[in-house]
Specification:
Blueprint lengths: L5 E4 L3 H12 L2 E6 L17 E7 L4 E6 L13 E5 L2 H12 L3 E9 L2 E8 L5 E6 L1
Parallel strand pairs: 1-4, 5-8
Antiparallel strand pairs: 2-3, 3-4, 6-7, 7-8
C-alpha cells in the first residue's frame, strides 16, 4: 500500500505542479478538463482548468487538480513532510518551497533533527522539511 497526497486547487493546479516539479524534480503529466474524452462532464468555463496533474519520482507520486466549482477554503489539518538525510539539500528544498510563501518555523538544527522547518508555499500548501 502507498499513501499519496492529492491536492485540490482553485485554478492554480497547473502553476503549482509545475513549480513543484522545478523544486522536487520528476515527471509531470497534466490534463485539462477541456481535454477529457467526455465533454458532458465538464462544467462551462472549466475547460482550461486542470482536471488532473501527477508528479512522479522514484520516491513519491504527488497529484492535484483544480476544483470543479465547489468552494475552496484553503488547506487545513495536514502537512506534506519531506524526509531526507542531507542538511544542505533540506535547506535548499525549504528555501525553494518557501519562496513567496510564509515561514512557520525557520529551518534549523533541532534536538530531534539535523535540520527541520515548516513553511506554507505561495499556494498555501503546508510543508515540513525534516532531515535526520
Amino acid at each position: 500500500m502507498k499513501i499519496n497526497p492529492y491536492l485540490t486547487f482553485d485554478g492554480q493546479a497547473e502553476e503549482a505542479m509545475t513549480f513543484y516539479q522545478s523544486v522536487l524534480g520528476g515527471t509531470l503529466q497534466l490534463m485539462k478538463y477541456g481535454e477529457m474524452p467526455d465533454k458532458s462532464m465538464v462544467p462551462e468555463g472549466m475547460e482550461d482548468r486542470c482536471a488532473h496533474a501527477g508528479l512522479q519520482t522514484d520516491n513519491f507520486w504527488l497529484q492535484a487538480s483544480d476544483s470543479m466549482g465547489e468552494p475552496f477554503d484553503g488547506y487545513k489539518g495536514f502537512t506534506i513532510q519531506i524526509d531526507l538525510d542531507d542538511v544542505d539539500r533540506g535547506r535548499a528544498l525549504f528555501d525553494a518551497l518557501g519562496a513567496g510563501g510564509t515561514v512557520i518555523m525557520p529551518y534549523d538544527k533541532q534536538f530531534w533533527a539535523s535540520g527541520f522547518g515548516l513553511v506554507n508555499d505561495r499556494f498555501g500548501v503546508p510543508w515540513m522539511v525534516h532531515v535526520t
